[in-house]
Amino acid sequence: EFGVDGKPKATPRIKSWRRGKMSGITTPDTADDCKALVAMAAQPHLPPTPLDGPIKCDITLVFPRPKRLCRKRDYPGMIPMDRKPDRDNCEKAILDMLSGIGMWTDDARVCTGPVDKWYHAIGAGPGAWIEIGTIAELLADKAEQK
Q1: Prediction pTM value
Q2: C-alpha distances in angstroms, 75 versus 71, 72, 79?
C-alpha cells in the first residue's frame, strides 16, 4: 500500500480529425509528471523480485474538487467523480509505470481490483492510493480468517 500526492492523469490518446479536405493528428499532453510521482512513491515498496502470477491492484484516484462543489452547503467529504478523465485510462498510466519500475513482470498479470474516482474532501488535496497484492496472499489471508 502506498499513496501518491498530486493530480492523477490519464494516458493520452492520439486523436485524428477531419474538416472537409483537411485532416490532421493531435497529440494531447503527456502524463509523464503523474507517472514520475507514482514511480517515486512506489520505489520504497518494490519487492526484491518482480511479482509474478495473478495480482490484485486496488486504485483510488482523488481529483481536485471543482469550485462549484466547494460551497458551505456542499458535502465536505469525498464526492464520487463522474467526469473525464476515464478511469481505465488513469489505471493504464499507473499500471504501465509500475511495470516500468519492476513492481511486476507484466501489467497483464493484474487480473482484479477496483478503480475508484473521487473529488477530494474540503481541506484535502488530490492524489491516489494504490494497494497491491498477489491472489495467493489474499487467499491465504481469507483462509486464516476462517
Answers
A1: 0.81
A2: 9, 8, 8
Distance of CA 101 to the CA centre of its chain: 15
Cell of 96: 504501465
Q: What does the pLDDT average to over 41-69?
A: 92
- Mean predicted confidence (pLDDT) in 116-129: 93
26-32 long-range Cβ contacts below 8 angstroms, 24+ apart:
31/93
C-alpha 4/C-alpha 130 separation (Å) is: 8
Give the integer Cα–Cα distance in Å for 89 and 104. Answer: 19
Place of cell 477530494: 120
pLDDT in tens, 16-53: 888 888 888 877 667 778 788 899 999 999 999 999 88
> Which element (helix H / strand E) includes 2?
strand 2-5
The Cα-based distances of 90 to 28, 65, 119 in angstroms read 14, 17, 15
Q: What is the pLDDT of residue 130?
A: 96
Distance from C-alpha of 93 to C-alpha of 38, rounded to nearest angstrom: 9
